Amino acid sequence: MSTPAQYYNSLPPVAKTYATVCLVTSLGRHLQLYSPAILALYYEDVFKHFQIWRLITNFIFIGSFSFTFAFRLFIILKYGVQLERGPFDKRTADYVWMFLFGAFSLLAISAIPFLRSSFMGASLVFMIVYVWSRELPNTRINFHGLVEFKGFYLPWTMLAIDLVLGNPLMPSLLGIGVGHLYYFLTVLHPLAGGNDICKTPFWVHKLVKRWGRGYQINSPVKQNESTGGAFQGRSYRVGGTSTARDPSNLGVFSGRSRRLAGR
């Protein structure tokens, strides 16, 4: 069994970063280091007082320490990690873009008065759940030995749990809606012969490259030679002998060799 430190270090970068930021934010609230109002999304403060940080901080507060907070953190660490290790494996930039697309969409929706929400971390978490359910719809889920169902129904099960916990359903429904929009534009629409209008932007690829975490297959951003597909074959020192990796690992010729004019 791995230690907590080993488990934490084994987490993929995007889910680990988001879970860590959410945990630290809620810990600060628990220690009364700040008031949640400073993180909330109020468009009046954003535009009149230039409090731009509210466009970001409302996504990293998923509640004060409580069962609801633990429930949402569990979703990130389980289903967010499974997404990153499964359908988004070696697609770090695409996974980051999924989060950014969800955040941009939720910010636009929140501008509508009757859909306005001060904190949309819960919506982003439910977007993760919905995308997971579409990418892995046939995965069998055993809910504490009480009932077993397919992954496709996970968002609605989580929605029922939110209802039992007394949490407002609107943030969760918005997350499901945005998740469906993302999945439709990136998967369903292209499969139907449409254009990939939600392709990961070039600037996201550059952002991930500068971040230096994860890996994006077929990235349009040129990789550094030290970390990318640089030549790794045999090398020679001037006036010296050759150096090479173990031939058994590289699949190079490993038969008998002969020296000229010798055996």
Give a topology summary:
Blueprint: H1 4-10, H2 13-30, H3 43-48, H4 54-57, H5 67-85, H6 92-110, H7 121-135, E1 140-143, E2 147-150, H8 154-165, H9 170-191, H10 202-211, E3 235-236, E4 242-243, H11 247-250
Antiparallel strand pairs: 1-2, 3-4
Description of the structure:
- This protein is mainly α.
- Helices cover 52% and strands 5% of the residues.
- Strands 1-2 form a two-stranded antiparallel sheet. A two-stranded antiparallel sheet has the order 3-4.
- Strand 1 and strand 2 form a beta hairpin.
- Helix 2 packs antiparallel against helix 5, helix 6 packs across helix 7 and helix 6 crosses helix 10.
- The protein is globular, with a radius of gyration of 24 Å.
Keywords:
mainly alpha, disordered C terminus, globular, two-stranded antiparallel sheet
- Strand percentage lies at under 5%
List SSEs in N-to-C order: HHHHHHHEEHHHEEH
Question: Low-confidence parts, pLDDT < 50 over ≥5 residues?
Answer: 225-263
* Largest sheet: spatial strand order: 1-2
* SS-based class: mainly alpha
Straight-line N-to-C gap: 54 Å
Mean pLDDT across residues? 85
Quick synopsis:
The chain is 52% helix and 5% strand.
